[in-house]
Fold Alanine racemase.
Amino acid sequence: MDIASLETPVPVVDLGIAEANIARMQAYADAHGIALRPHIKTHKLPALAHRQLEQGARGITCQKLGEAEVMADAGIDDIFISYPIIGEAKAERLAALAARVKMRVNVDSSAGIETLARAARHGHEIGVVIEFDSGNKRSGVVTVDAAVALAKQAAATPGLRFDGLMTYPTSAASAAFIAEALPKLRAEGLEPAVLSGGGSPKAVHTHEMAPVNELRVGTYVYNDRMMVAAGAAGWEDCALTVHVTVISRPEDDRAIIDAGSKTFAADIMPGGQQLGYGHILEYPDARIDRISEEHGMVDLTACAKKPAIGERLRVVPNHVCPVSNLHDRVATVKDGAFLGFVDVAARGRTL
Amino acid sequence: MDIASLETPVPVVDLGIAEANIARMQAYADAHGIALRPHIKTHKLPALAHRQLEQGARGITCQKLGEAEVMADAGIDDIFISYPIIGEAKAERLAALAARVKMRVNVDSSAGIETLARAARHGHEIGVVIEFDSGNKRSGVVTVDAAVALAKQAAATPGLRFDGLMTYPTSAASAAFIAEALPKLRAEGLEPAVLSGGGSPKAVHTHEMAPVNELRVGTYVYNDRMMVAAGAAGWEDCALTVHVTVISRPEDDRAIIDAGSKTFAADIMPGGQQLGYGHILEYPDARIDRISEEHGMVDLTACAKKPAIGERLRVVPNHVCPVSNLHDRVATVKDGAFLGFVDVAARGRTL
């Protein structure tokens, strides 16, 4: 069976490209003495997480307990959950994870520390990293004093180990926060072993932006249209493409492909909706200007040559991480040869 | 176990509300002599498809063969695929479906008829409905002459049966197209048994808009924020809500909930991104103004009372159909009691 005979729409991962992307980011981290801790949210595949570790990554990052459970089941033994974990049921699951792998968890509130403390009462130490906001206005404390107070609370809680600080994404504001926080933490006798930053688009500028010693990145493994738009990758570095088929040509300047938001997700480019929903490698002047769940509407106005019904196209999605989350499996290829389907084991693990 | 003890984020379907929504749309269709053929894309649950049929629906609508296969496996025997089916592999799957259930399929090109003809060569007749465009600029022929030509081609093809016309959504333009097409079809000796329209927001105005005799609607079974914004439902008619938890309160006017685009999908309201990503029933003045994959950023500026970390909220998503497609299972409730989880059997069936 070859790739051209697979039914569409189908996400196809070029393992050669992914491998090169993994190697390149590892080389960057190694050159700058930064520990690479890849975020598995992009691929959600144990096999690629293992490749990242084999190439030198120091543990992995997950967003949810359910992802960490899948990765622990696959034999990965050092996991950072870079997301606030809240509530009794989640504390019990965290305790079960901490009993079998090394766990480190994000905290940005006293309630978060209470959840971790409850988990740690089962007898397995949990590392705590305080999240601070570098201007992203998501989770994370907004003042150094709040970070120091949580660090003290964590260090004083039986079963918890204060590991350091984290933010997302790394920026100049991260550096300013760290510069203010370090002396205040040290004045309390607290030394952060980990200063963790993240974000693929500017990852290779980490050392210029802030003195972090850990890098959490996900998207770099596949890359996507946003990474290309940010100048962080070329189309040839995009490891995941969605293979689609033209199923309708109602007008000369319009094609319909068999993929919409159920296949690509509905994430829009930073520049806005008018930038469309993906890049067609074979027709770079075409524009997927609208999507519904199963249809992609392609404007061919700017195309000299136009595709026919039945023609197969390869699309680089705007944002690749939610694409992995939509599909039960991905096809894998290497050097043009189909290697088989791989289950997206951590797909849909929102809990 | 009660609903409040389920881990979040979790989609919860109130079967009482869904049942009432099904009954109301059926009553409308019955009152106007229109055959109701619900689109299962919204719930993707065989159990609800069966309830729709038990209440009077005449068959179901699916978008993809994979959805139809799930529904046929569940014993549903009259299926319309309202989507162009193209290619040899899909022809074989369609043939297998036609061998066991009554199948009708959308066509908007000669290539589409060729696919259906190939399927029909296995010996089981397939109904053909020609899709026309009512201004939506998606799939569907744009001229009456093209529709008539395809109808003739279908009628002349062994194993295919010309069944009629379809469009999406129903509009005044649908009426104009039908008015022009009917005499031209009849002049060719072709009588369309089916004139099929669709779209939940204006469904109960179908009889005022165009002389269709079949109504394809999906969203009405659950409703969502878009349906409420369109004046087609109230919050009390929204059968699916996503239960979430506040996991961070970094600032007085900002809460973070444990759900983002992996839970709600990233569909934006017709009015644009600034309208946010869902409606929080307990805090109607709060605004989910940004989402990332696992975070929902909630602006509390307009709220007199503000939620605390750990508090559970119910969110009506912007667009409910892709929510069903993100989750392996939904929790079901009736009269406030948790009835158990149901697998979203047709989730992810993009093929």
